[in-house]
Amino acid sequence: MPYPYRAWFACVAGCPGRHSLSEVIYRCPSCAGLLEVKHDEAALRRRSPAAWMRLFDERYLRTSWPYGSGVWGKKEWVQPMISADNVVSLFEGGTNLFWAERYGAQLGLRDLWVKQCGTSHTGSFKDLGMTVLVSTVKQMRADGKPIRAVACASTGDTSAALAAYGAAAGIPVIVLLPANKVTAAQLVQPIANGALVCSLDTDFDGCMKVVQRLTDTDKGDSGIYLANSMNSLRVEGQKSIALEIIQQFDWEVPDWVLVPGGNLGNVSAIAKGFLEAQRMGLISTPPRLVCCQAEHANPLFRAYERARAANRAMTLDDYEAITAKPTLASAIQIGAPVSLSKAVQAIADTGGMVMQASEEQLANASARADRTGLFSCPHTGVAFACLEQLIVDRTIAADDRVVVVSTAHGLKFTEFKTGYHEQRFEFDSRYANTPVAMTGDPDQAIGELHRLLDGLEA
Questions:
Q1: CA 74 to centroid of chain Cα atoms
Q2: Cα separation of 90 and 92, whole Å?
Q3: Cα–Cα 20 to 30 A to 23, which of 42, 252, 254, 411?
Q4: pTM of the prediction?
Q5: How many separate helices (H) and strands (E) can be counted in the chain?
Q6: pLDDT recorded at residue 57
Q7: Residue 137, Cα to own-chain centre: how many angstroms?
Q8: For the chain, how many structural domains are there in total?
Q9: For the chain, percent helix, then strand, then coil, each to nearest 5?
Q10: Residues 412 and 156: beta-carbon distance below 8 Å
């Protein structure tokens, strides 16, 4: 069927050639570099910026299929080469942009916001990319492509999203997880959704090697489709975070956006969303992006610091893969990020930065934010800790508008929360809060409660 708007895969390094979005291809056939989705921007420009904003606002969180989704409400900018009948949506996106008034006031920041991507269907931002990938696979299967299953390596959230969307579409899912490195809440999600869950005696980077070999088209058509973020269809869904942020600000741009970084697909996607909005005339300039890494898994930060020490922009030559050490921010415990080249470009294109946070910093920042009404995952804690550093050194000013992207729901990381408040970690849990044991006698209990409240108010 004809589509009014078109998109295709192209090499991020600029090698010639266009590849159909329905082609099973993950890397450039010329240079083996990453691919990205390119859109026919000339066709998109036939509609004015004001008309696009009006259309997106008319669709936002409404019931007309599939446009009520925060992703599919921007279908023409995301995946125009798919019929509405093959869209697999669980009403992803449309998540709260929370004004963190009390937390911001504690930090001396008047205009702090938290984009709560963890309130999506499976509890993380991964839903945004997975709806696009699984919908495209459903379209490919409907068109006769022999795809038997979809597979991913995961530190938890990717597998949950893929399993849910695969189950909704009736497509078999294979999940490869690093043994003993995924929370119970994350593990049970793909199990409950019927995925083939495999626990590998390796880390995430090792799981990635296996899934890349499993889906390697150079070794023959296995019929198993790769669902990790090196598949650029994922990026198209995740870039909707940027578009939704400016939409929720009535099409205005924040000064800063802080994003936790592991495999680096999300910071790349968010940059892509802002830059495309700029090229289409919806905004005049992108915000500055800050990629926030855990100190135990910080290859991009190390590259950024090498370049900064030499007083020049970061390049791919500054990067060296590392063996990531165990971190409380388990989902970003990645030492060889797949989307490295895209992330380096994203930082350059937005005048961005790369920061890191220690285990103590990320845990205490997460707990401090929780005390103001949030319930953040440890990866969001990394971003909060980096935010606090940037405020202390006055890189971020008191009147700057700042958005922190919260990537997952804290309920997926209850072991992290309980460990912190039970003070089981090897650092001071500054904001620990433990239950108080007291008698069941009403008079004694009431007296004790009042004494405790007096202590809080002192």
A1: 18
A2: 5
A3: 42
A4: 0.94
A5: 17, 12
A6: 98
A7: 21
A8: 1
A9: 45, 15, 40
A10: yes
Asked whether residue 181 carries a pLDDT value surpassing 80, the answer given is no
pLDDT of residue 185: 79
pLDDT of residue 35: 95
Cβ–Cβ under 8 Å, residues 331 and 262: yes
Listed in sequence order, the residues at least 6 apart from 127 whose beta carbon sits closer than 8 Å to its beta carbon are 90, 92, 93, 120, 121, 161, 164, 165
The answer to whether residue 211 sits within a structural domain is no
Distance CA 387, CA 292 (A): 9
Residue 251 lies in a domain: yes
Q: Which residues contact 450 (CB under 8 A, 6 or more apart)?
A: none
CA 165 vs. chain centroid, Å, equals 17
How confident is residue 334, by pLDDT bands cut at 50, 70 and 90?
A: very high
Look at residue 187 in the predicted model and tell me its pLDDT.
Answer: 83
Stronger pLDDT, 331 or 130, i.e. the higher one: 130
Q: Which of 283, 165, 305 is nearest to 234 (CA)?
A: 165
Using alpha carbons, select from 288, 397, 292 the residue that is nearest to residue 346. Answer: 288
Question: DSSP letter at 196?
Answer: E
How far apart (Å, rounded) are the C-alpha atoms in residues 289 and 297? 19
C-alpha closest to that of 126 among 269, 303, 326, 252:
269
Residue 305 confidence class, pLDDT cut points 50, 70, 90: very high
Rounded to an integer, what is the distance from CA 237 to the centroid of its chain?
A: 10
Q: Contact, 90 vs 134, CB < 8 A?
A: no
Answer whether residue 248 shows pLDDT above 90.
yes
Q: Report in angstroms the alpha-carbon separations of 246 from 143, 279, 298, 401.
A: 36, 14, 29, 12
3-state secondary structure at position 153:
strand
Residue 219 within a domain: no
Domain of 355? 97-122+235-421
- Does residue 216 sit within a domain? no
Residue 427's Cβ-side half-sphere holds a number of Cα atoms within 13 Å equal to: 11
How many residues appear in the chain?
458
Residue 220 in this model has a pLDDT that exceeds 60: no
SS3 218: helix
The pLDDT, as a whole number, for residue 154 is 85
What is the C-alpha separation between 415 and 325, in angstroms, rounded? 19
The C-alpha atoms of residue 137 and residue 149 are separated, in whole angstroms, by 9
User: How confident is residue 370, by pLDDT bands cut at 50, 70 and 90?
Assistant: very high
Write the CATH number for 390: 3.40.50.1100
Mean pLDDT calculated for residue range 200-205:
87
Residue carrying the six token digits 């599919």: 72
CA distance 272 to 242: 8
